[in-house]
Amino acid sequence: MVPQLVTVRYRRSDGRRRRLYVPIVPVVLVLSPLLLLAASAGLVACSVTRISPMGALRGTGQLLWALPGTRFEIDDGRTAFLVSVR
């Protein structure tokens, strides 16, 4: 299952907490021209390094499939950052 929503929670240096909800599908639609550019750059990189483009695409798909339920947290002094993928 491809992730649908990314929740980003962070604590600012003044102690206030913020929560952002980022829907994946609208972001992908807005950034699709950049995704096409990145895909063409990936094809060039695969041909230069002699990696199978289908193997790279399969690996990317497996990574996206494993993302839902992932959480990672960064805590640096007074600032904390938590990302949760649903």
Please, could you describe this protein's structure?
The chain is of the alpha+beta class. Helices cover 45% and strands 31% of the residues. The chain contains three helices and four strands, in the order ββαααββ. The protein has a four-stranded antiparallel β-sheet. The mean pLDDT is 84.
- SS-based structural class? alpha+beta
Q: What oligomeric arrangement do these chains adopt?
A: single chain
- So what's the overall shape? elongated
Task: Please summarize the sheet with the most strands.
Answer: 4 strands, antiparallel
Helicity, as a percent range: 40-55%
For the terminal residues, how far apart are their CA atoms? Answer: 10 Å
Q: How do the helices and strands follow one another from N- to C-terminus?
A: EEHHHEE
On the 0-100 scale, what is the average pLDDT? 84
Short description:
By secondary structure, this protein is of the alpha+beta class. 45% of the residues lie in helices and 31% in strands.
What's the structural blueprint in terms of helices and strands?
Elements: E1 5-11, E2 17-23, H1 24-30, H2 32-49, H3 53-66, E3 71-76, E4 79-85
Antiparallel strand pairs: 1-2, 1-4, 3-4
